[in-house]
Amino acid sequence: MDKLNSLRAFVKVVELGSFSEAGRQLRLSRSAISKYVGELEQDLGVQLLNRTTRHASATENGQAYFERALTILADLDAADQAVAQAQSTPRGLLRVNAPMSFGTLQLGPAIADFMAQCPELQIQLVLSDDQVDPMQGGFDVTLRIADLESSSLIARKIVAIDRAICASPDYLKQHGTPKLPEDLRSHALLTYGFLLTGNQWKLTGKDGDDHWIQPSWTLCVNNAEVLRDAAIKGRGVALLPTFIAGDALRAGSLRSVLNAYKAPPLTLYAIYPPTRHLAVKVRLFIDFLVARFAGVPEWDRKL
């Protein structure tokens, strides 16, 4: 029996809950995955998985074995990575997941410059606004703009992202400029539909007082570029990350309002699985992003 491959197959089935998905991840057939797991169960003399036609889950013995197997495989990977780190040039495939708007507007040029520094590295960038599970997606690094829930993954802060309340000059001329947060209740609001606060806007004044605004929205969408475009067209007031609104604010097609009040900044994190020895390619990429966006980000300059 190939014990190592059997362990890897078993762990992947437990993580994904599926023999077929485990096969896709490991680039093996479903029957091969089933054979590896069956040999492992036969060797141990216990049932490790509960199986249905569509799902597989660990038994009580299987869960205990899974946790031990994770440690064993992590140690093996760490040993491999420790040797690989002796190489001065990162090689192989780096899989990165990132939000759509940040990826197209800010990450693209950064990736191109990183490629120049690491010419022997292959980079697979997947842009998505879905909350992708980094483990199940098989990503080396996941970039996420969010307040993170607790998990076994490691998160490193890349940069804080400010937000601006803004509208077009034509809209403000026609409907007036809000002076206080409460004034927003009489305006058409364009809102991002997937905030932790729901549709509510939280604005904090210089005195530290918080103001909660429940938008009477005319547009709710999960992409801030759409909100920006609608605001430029005069459709209402939007609360936008400055990396999306910055060019329009500098050009004057949007104007910021309520500048004495701030929405809580967002944070861009790099998330990666815990390992004793972080892969060189992952460490170099994250270090590059931290240095790239250090200080005042380019999108906030001259605002």
From TrEMBL:
SUPFAM superfamilies: Periplasmic binding protein-like II (SSF53850), Winged helix' DNA-binding domain (SSF46785)
Keyword Protein transport found: no
Bilayer-crossing regions: none
Keywords recorded for this protein, A-Z: DNA-binding, Transcription, Transcription regulation
Segments forming domain HTH lysR-type: 1-59
Listed InterPro entries: LysR-type_TF_proteobact-type, LysR_HTH_N, LysR_subst-bd, WH-like_DNA-bd_sf, WH_DNA-bd_sf
GO biological process: DNA-templated transcription
Signal peptide positions on this chain: none
GO MF entry, a single one: DNA-binding transcription factor activity
Tagged with keyword Transcription regulation: yes
Protein family membership: Belongs to the LysR transcriptional regulatory family.
Protein known as: LysR family transcriptional regulator
